[in-house]
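Sequence of Phosphotransferase (Caldibacillus thermoamylovorans).
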Amino acid sequence: MEHILENGWVLEPAGGLTGEAFIASHENKKLFIKRNSSPFLAVLSAEGIVPKLIWTKRSESGDVFTAQKWIKGRKLEPNDMSGEDVAKLLKKIHRSKPLLSMMKRLGKTPFSPEILLTQLQSKLNANLIKEFAISKTIRYLEQHVPEIRPNNWAVCHGDMNHNNWMITDENELFLIDWESAIIGDPAFDLGPLLYWYVPEDEWENWLNNYGIYLTDSIYNRLKWYVYYQTLLSIQFFDSKGNEKDRVFWLEYLDTIK
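Predicted 3D structure, token representation.
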């Protein structure tokens, strides 16, 4: 892969689950390199949602590599997620017409609750379906699908883990790792973020910063999607053989109200 860089640059893995991220360094310069990153990275960069895109290159093997500005900063801590800046950046993302237009040009279509639930049921490992908490949650999702109707479709990031949010030393906030992005109900992102990170007595103020009011309809959508996303987490960790995290999220199901 070094041949895509100019002479003198040193490449090293940046970590992560996929092994597709790298750090390129030369003297006092650094770049963040990604192999086959999200195809709409350029729009994310132009919208100021991710660090600035420097260049895109295609290798002889057909892989596409992107280089982004290296930023000095840190990942958000869980207690940072209740901040006004997080709400406002997510509002910007969900209301971005360029992002939605790019996703549609890439052939993406909205994921309705019905489609998501069908896909989830087809993915769940047989051993998980036997778990009482999971079968109970599936029944809840099935029963409430008719009530889950978004007011609008938006580009949703799909993984609200606090480690995907970065703040620079200059106080710029970014949301990175867009491989799970879909067109869906904004509650697809909002539900997990609020349930996992924000105390319920702060939801109304957080959503006001985001630009909406907490109604019964929105509350139901938040609850539906946090159940859905939690089941996805259980399936993921079960498939990876990660018993500790599988049990954590399985027990978390019983805390959702």
